[in-house]
Structure formats: structure tokens, C-alpha cells
Design a protein that fits this description.
α1 runs antiparallel to α10 and α2 runs antiparallel to α9. This protein folds into 2 domains: about 210 residues, no CATH class; about 200 residues, no CATH class. With about 450 residues, the protein is an all-alpha fold.
Length: about 450
């Protein structure tokens, strides 16, 4: 688990660190209004992308270690096609509705802008699904490479765009889309001719029927987990204006860098639980300990570094310092939720996880709205942190039970140790055991893993 967690955290460090630098440079080259509008548009793209993945990237993490050959190839290509198609439809619909409701945002005012928005959404969606495939195939270095290319390309293109065209919301979004597109193309370009041929396999939903229930649960979990982070910048931009959103987005960008670490630990637990309760409990204890360390550091350093870090963007961004402080202090509350979702996923209780995640997202967004109305950006941060803390108190008992090894309620999927029954009953019919599968990261294969993408 630690190896996968390190790889995921490395990806996060690269993306968040260079992403922080990207927005800091952009803030020095453009006004706070431009940054706030750009952040709102990119948050919209990312939210549609998360929705359009349909939970397929999480499905790939779970299913690819159990598949090989044509079955794995067909699954990956089909997931790409479904997600990209859904993203294009969703982006066009959102752009049209936004243009009808509020035609002042130039990002949705012309066919060219709508096309950019749609392409950016589709590319972002495919990138998310691709990351899931890379984790499923245990190609963690390739995932790090993709995110490194994404971060470096957009960072390098930003000053060029500023000098040649000036930084408008369309320009900033274009640079962001360019980086994402380059990262996907570079990764695909590194594959062998035989591997690239596999991407032209005709997508097929045949065999998906038994998995739709699982896919749906994964989907709603993913959407609910990401919804507050992606919708809050839009809420702030609409209610307080783009300039206020610029400061809030800078604070959110930095706090996300901290909060994503427990989430990556949870993904590692989910990817490697392997049906062994002893192995899983050891991973759970490690995730709790590491999350506690990160949370303590964040709670101490956050209040001390809030103003200096926000000042790197410019004096207009420092107003979000108390928001950043409140959220950094409540880091462990966010970690509890991430670990709870991972526990429920790994033990097969997807329906329970989906219900809790959706209810939690609604609770957090509702609290954030109340805080936003009462105290602006500062009120939002305090209310969101308080909501996350209350939520964590209800979720912790289930984590403690899993840590003790108590049997958790799993009414909708298989339990630990039931893999043989699942295979014989058809859930994984025809698939090799994860412990024997050549793609299992704990077992070497004679064929390089890269050939399977």
C-alpha cells in the first residue's frame, strides 16, 4: 500500500505544487477578476469531467488487476469512449444553459469558446479515466509522468500566451486545456505500435450489464467526494464576484494539496486490499497514522503560513487567510471521510458509501452556503470546517470497527474472503484470481505491463 500511496502522493505533489506555481504566475500576470473567472470555468470543466467519468476510472482500478489480454483492452477502450462521449454532451449542454441564463460570461458567448469548453471537458475526462487505468495496471510511474507533463506544459505556455495574446479567461483556460491534452498525447505516444493499435479496438458495452450497479455506486461516490471542492468556487464567483473568488480559489488550491493525501492513502487501500482482512487492517492503521501526522502538521503550519502563502499571489488574495486557517485546522476531519469511503469501498459496501458521500456533500455545501451568506469567504471556511468535523464524528465509529476487525455491514457486494464464491457465482466469472493475475503488482509478469495500454 505504501508504494502505491507514495506514487499517488508524488503525482499529487507534482500536480499541486506546479499547479500552485501556475496560478501564482497567472495571478501576477492578470487581474484578480480574470483569475476568478478562469477558476470558475475550470472548476466547471472539472466537475462535468468527474460526472462524465461515470465512475469508470474507479471501476478500472478494481477490475483491471482481474483481467488480461483482450478483456482488459476492450474494457479500457470502452471506458474511454463512454466517458468522452458523456463529457462532450454534458459540456455543450452546460455551456448552452449558461449562455441562456447569463450571457455576460464570454467563455460561453461564441461557438469557438463553447468548442474549447467541450474539448477541455472531454480531454479532462479521458485523463481521469486514463489515470484509473494506469493505477489498475500498476503503471504508477506513467501516471506521475502524465501529471508532470500536464503541469510543465501549462506552466511553460502561460507566459508565452500572456506575451502574445494577453491573459483573458479564454486564454487561461486554453493554456490549461493544452497542458492536459499534451499530457495524454505524450503518454499515448510513448506506447509501442502494437500497444497503440489496441486503442483502436471498437468499444463494446457487451459484458457491462453485470457491472452497471457497481459502476453507478462508484460514480456517485466520486461525484459526491469532488462536488464541494469543484462547486464552491462557482458559488463564490456567482455570489461574491470574480475578485473574491480569486482569493478563495488560491486558498482552496493549497488546502486541497493537503487534503488529497488521505484520499490517496484511501485509493491505495482500495487498490491493494486483496481480500485479506489482516492485510487490509494493517493498511488502514497506516493510513490513519499518516493522516494524523499530516493533519497535525497542517493544523500548526496552516495558521502560521496562510498570509505569506496567499501573498505570493498578490495583496488581493490575502483576504482568504482565515478561510485557509479554518480549513487547515480541520484537516483530520476531511481525512476521516476519505478513509471511511475507502473502507466501505474495499469491503464492498458501495451503496452505503454512495449514500453517505452524497449526504455528506449536501451537508457540506449547505453549511458552506450559510457561511457564505453570513460571513463571506471567511464564513464559508469556518462553516465548511465545522460541517466536516461534525460529519467525521458520525463516520469514525465505522472506521474504528474496521480497525478492530469487526464485521461491517455489506449488503450489496462480496465480503472479504468470498472471492472464490464471487467467481463461481459469475461476478468475476472467467477471471483469474487477483493473487494469481499477471497484472497483480505483487507478482512479476513476463510481459511488460506497458504493453497492455
Amino acid at each position: 500500500m505504501v508504494r502505491i500511496a507514495i506514487a499517488l502522493c508524488s503525482t499529487t505533489a507534482i500536480t499541486a505544487g506546479l499547479g500552485f506555481l501556475f496560478w501564482a504566475v497567472a495571478a501576477r500576470l492578470a487581474t484578480a477578476d480574470v483569475i476568478g473567472r478562469s477558476a470558475a470555468v475550470i472548476s466547471t470543466i472539472e466537475f462535468i469531467a468527474v460526472f462524465a467519468t461515470l465512475g469508470l476510472h474507479t471501476l478500472l482500478i478494481a477490475e483491471l488487476p482481474r483481467r488480461y489480454g483482450a478483456r482488459a483492452e476492450s474494457l479500457v477502450v470502452t471506458c474511454f469512449a463512454l466517458a468522452a462521449g458523456m463529457a462532450l454532451v454534458g459540456a455543450v449542454c452546460v455551456a448552452l444553459v449558461h449562455h441562456i441564463v447569463d450571457d455576460r460570461e464570454s467563455m460561453y458567448a461564441s461557438p469557438e469558446s463553447v468548442l474549447l469548453f467541450a474539448i477541455g471537458t472531454a480531454v479532462s475526462t479521458v485523463a481521469i479515466v486514463l489515470d484509473g487505468a494506469l493505477v489498475g495496471f500498476a503503471l504508477h510511474n506513467q501516471q506521475v509522468l502524465r501529471n508532470l507533463v500536464f503541469a510543465l506544459v501549462k506552466l511553460a505556455a502561460l507566459p508565452v500566451a500572456a506575451l502574445t495574446a494577453g491573459l483573458s479567461p479564454q486564454t487561461v483556460v486554453s493554456v490549461w486545456v493544452l497542458g492536459n491534452l499534451a499530457s495524454v498525447l505524450v503518454l499515448l505516444g510513448r506506447r509501442t505500435r502494437e500497444a497503440r493499435r489496441r486503442f483502436w479496438i471498437t468499444p463494446s458495452v457487451k459484458g457491462f450489464a453485470p457491472m452497471w450497479r457497481t459502476v453507478g455506486a462508484h460514480h456517485w461516490i466520486n461525484v459526491a467526494i469532488q462536488a464541494p471542492r469543484l462547486l464552491l468556487p462557482i458559488m463564490v464567483a456567482v455570489q461574491l464576484g470574480s475578485a473574491a473568488n480569486a482569493g478563495f480559489y488560491a486558498a482552496l488550491l493549497m488546502i486541497t494539496f493537503i487534503w488529497i493525501i488521505p484520499n490517496n492513502l484511501g485509493v491505495a487501500m482500495f487498490a491493494l486490499h486483496s481480500g485479506n482482512p489482516t492485510h487490509f487492517r494493517a493498511g488502514l492503521q497506516a493510513a490513519i497514522r499518516l493522516s494524523a501526522v499530516v493533519s497535525i502538521v497542517a493544523a500548526i503550519a496552516g495558521p502560521l503560513l496562510a498570509r505569506p502563502l496567499l501573498a505570493l499571489f498578490g495583496p488581493e488574495y490575502v483576504h482568504a487567510d482565515y478561510c485557509f486557517m479554518a480549513l487547515s485546522i480541520c484537516t483530520f476531519a476531511g481525512a476521516v471521510k476519505a478513509i471511511y469511503i475507502a473502507v466501505r469501498r474495499a469491503t464492498g459496501a458501495l451503496t452505503t458509501a454512495a449514500r453517505v458521500a452524497v449526504a455528506g456533500a449536501a451537508w457540506e455545501l449547505g453549511a458552506a452556503e450559510v457561511g457564505l451568506l453570513i460571513g463571506g469567504v471567511t464564513g464559508l471556511g469556518i462553516a465548511l470546517g465545522a460541517a466536516a468535523t461534525v460529519e467525521a464524528t458520525f463516520l469514525w465509529p465505522a472506521i474504528a470497527a474496521a480497525k478492530r476487525g469487526d464485521d461491517m455491514s455489506r449488503n450489496d457486494n462480496t465480503r472479504f474472503g468470498d472471492e472464490s464464491q464471487a467467481e463461481s457465482s459469475g461476478q468475476y466469472a472467467g477471471m483469474p484470481s487477483p493473487r494469481q493475475h499477471p497484472f497483480n503488482p505483487r507478482r512479476r509478469s513476463d510481459t511488460p505491463l506497458e504493453e497492455h495500454l
